[in-house]
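On clarity, I found the account of how folds are encoded harder to follow than it need be. For illustration, here is how one protein appears when written out as sequence plus structure tokens:

:::
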Amino acid sequence: MSRIALVDDDRNILTSVSITLEAEGFEVETYNDGQSALDGFTKRMPDLAVLDIKMPRMDGMDLLQRLRPKTQIPIIFLTSKDDEIDEVLGLRMGADDYVKKPFSQRLLVERIRSLLRRQEALETNEVAVEEDQKVMQRGELSMDPLRHAVVWKGKDVSLTVTEFLLLQALAQRPGFVKSRDQLMDVAYDDQVYVDDRTIDSHIKRLRKKMRMADDTFSAIETLYGIGYRYNEE
């Protein structure tokens, strides 16, 4: 049974979403601010977290910043309809997805299931089956889906589920262009809609993490209006 953490200062959302998720077979933990969630996560890390952005004591952005050095669990942001800047910033900071308020609880359940399926696929090495190898080596890049491990020039790089899948999709065929639609298919299930900006934000975050390991990293090339390409170095 997957453990889902809901972090929101709206008690109505906590109550109603908890009931829905528990009916879907999830174990649910609720917190009404970021600090309480951080304290709870220190004792027991959930399998996935759903975070509101605007909360007292510690908001969702601050909580995300504190979590990412410790864990790469999938994270979904809840945003208001006017929070477009926060959505992009959250994705660049390492969130995997976002859902706008007011939202369909069925949509949220599908987003949660999609992320958990992708996490499970990485942990069981399903994403490496097509290449018939456990570890993919592309020049200075090494990717091990079984351990969810990425190494660039001998340095470990910690990626979220989404970032790992996007990098793997690009690196599997160096020199070939992947359109945004193709990358969406890799990163999200068919029933989950995301726009181009979401993919772009994940790629920017991915590049930033790779450059933290090597400030000369330039293997991911943008082809404006077309998509992205991995160039083996």
